[in-house]
Amino acid sequence: MLFRLAEVYKSYSGKEILRGVSFQVNPDEKIGLVGRNGAGKTTVFRLITGEEGADSGEIFKTNNLKIGLLEQHVDFTENETVHTAALSAFERLHDIEAEMRVLEIRMVENATEEVLEKYSELQTEFEHADGFTYTARAEAILLGLGFTKENWDLETKKLSGGQKNRLGMARLLLSNPDILLLDEPTNHLDVSAVEWLENFLQTYEKSYVIISHDRYFLDRTCRKVIEIEQGKAFSYVGNYSAFLIERELRREQQQREFENQQSYINKTEEFIRKNLAGQKTKQAKSRRTMLEKIDRIEAVSADRSSGNFQLKNVERAGVNVLMVEDLAIGYGEKFLAKNINFTLHRGECLGIIGGNGTGKTTFLKTILGHQRELDGKIMWGAKTAIGYYSQQLEDLDERNEIIAELRRVAPLAENGALRSFLARFLFVGEDVFKRVADLSGGEKGRLALAKLIFSNVNVLVLDEPTNHLDIPSREALESALESYPGTILTVSHDRFFLDQVSTQILSFEENYKIELFNGNYTDFHDWKIKKNENREPRVEKNPEVKVQLVKTKSEQSNLSKNELQKIKQRFEEVESEITSAEESLTKITAQMNDSQIIADHSRFQKLTKDYQTLEKKIQNFYAEWEKLAEQNASTEI
């Protein structure tokens, strides 16, 4: 165990956020912490680090636990450069190096046995901590997070807020804590840096807990999901996609148990009401006492409305909505991208991706006519009515009340119609009279989308539309856009969102290059990997390995029919064992969330050991399964 929360409660200004949260994090676990905005995810991090204390309950940590927290606001010392700030994560190694230099001088003057022994101890510690490679590791992480060598000598005080956060992450990853707590780690990263971070975490040897709205990122980095819902914690084995399935099954079971209990309670209360003053008074009183002691099962709360983003019917545009020929974009004489060519048809969705500064937002502004193209042609088709969603939300007038802001796109609409529409975006009751200036980022994002959709346009141009939305709101928006009859162009770093809505991908690459691909993000990503593999010359570094591989494959093809049948049989057995083991792991997880078991320390410790043993067993099963799957494929059983 690294740390454990047991029946933790936390309130702010009388509002209860956590209501008996219990869960445990063990060594080597890769966890996603999910829940709606305001559910208490960041509060959990503050409690773990000791920044805040719980109102009640207990938080247990192993002795000398080193926690690495990704902070949203990062500070650096005076006169630090990007390179020295990254290397500051290795403070102990620097101290060892300095002490070794002093001892080396003393060894020249007087190499006593005591000096030699101390130097040997320091050298062993330095080697054990990979002291000879720490500079290379730091530079690799800087490059992965988007700091080119030209940036390494920049003073940290000259960095933007986003750059400081990325540098803070680099320093955190290099500090090698026992557990990483990452709160929205992808916020300031472009797609290439996010993919680098995914690969880094997939090979990271220690534990981490990630809070993120990036579902694609959670899918690729997490093997367990803990959801904070209604102030409690629920644990699920698997990545984010597996969590969605398991959560639905849990909610269905909980709802059935709630309904059965309610039926029992209603019948019992009816018996008490009829017999409390009659011949069966004693039985009625006994049942009333029993009802007072019963543990009430909570109903599954219908998901608080995520916003009904259902788009209205729109006027039908022509078949060719947008044609772009040899387009070049940029500012003045500076090109950001050129040779952009595509035709977008009615009903299609163009997903636009690329690194920071490659020209995505500039492209949108250029096709909208907000700035001039440097070369080429932009031709909009017939009957196009365009609505633009800016990630800066610059179209909102902060002086207005919410209902007045919506009225800007429909001056003649009745108040009832406006209020009804705003309710779909979670603005209910007196909320509609809040001033725009007083809204949070998420609320402003929802209002901007409400305006855009209410305006009844047939072309949506969206610049990072999911930035201010939590996961359920993103899912609702995806559902609406999938059924939208018009045409969409959207810049987004949310790859899960692009998978759901895009029919084409326009990728802004380095050196002004453009890639156009028919399909969603995942198809594009796989295609690009294969393309790069085919482009790179293959250098055989170890010919002996190649010979052995060929020999192995030949041997497999010469296996007897009986041996082939045994491989197939074992393959099916392992699949069954994996299913059975995962079901057992789910049951143990449910027990570990039981408050009575958590209170029983010895029982909880036994469950923890069982959990770790079973999880390791499952990993071994999967390793065997993969090996058998390869044999199955190569022998064509």
Reported by name, the CATH topology of the largest domain is: Rossmann fold
Average pLDDT level: 84
Judged by helices, strands and strand pairing, the structural class is alpha/beta
| C-alpha-based Rg, rounded | 30 Å
Instruction: Tell me the β content.
Output: 15-25%
What is the correct CATH architecture of the largest domain? 3-Layer(aba) Sandwich
Which sheet architecture does the biggest sheet show?
A: 6 strands, mixed
The count of domains is 5
- Helix proportion range: 40-55%
CATH class type of the largest domain:
Alpha Beta
Quick one: how many beta strands?
18
Low-confidence stretches: 538-557
Q: What count of helical segments does DSSP give?
A: 21
Shape: globular
SSE topology:
Elements: E1 3-12, E2 15-25, E3 30-34, H1 41-49, E4 56-61, E5 67-70, H2 82-87, H3 91-109, H4 113-128, H5 134-144, H6 161-174, E6 179-183, H7 191-202, E7 207-211, H8 215-221, E8 224-229, E9 232-237, H9 240-275, H10 281-293, E10 320-331, E11 334-345, E12 349-354, H11 360-367, E13 375-380, E14 386-389, H12 402-407, H13 415-423, H14 441-454, E15 459-463, H15 471-482, E16 487-491, H16 495-501, E17 504-508, E18 514-518, H17 521-535, H18 543-557, H19 561-592, H20 595-599, H21 601-635
Helix pairs in contact: 3-4, 5-6, 9-10, 19-21
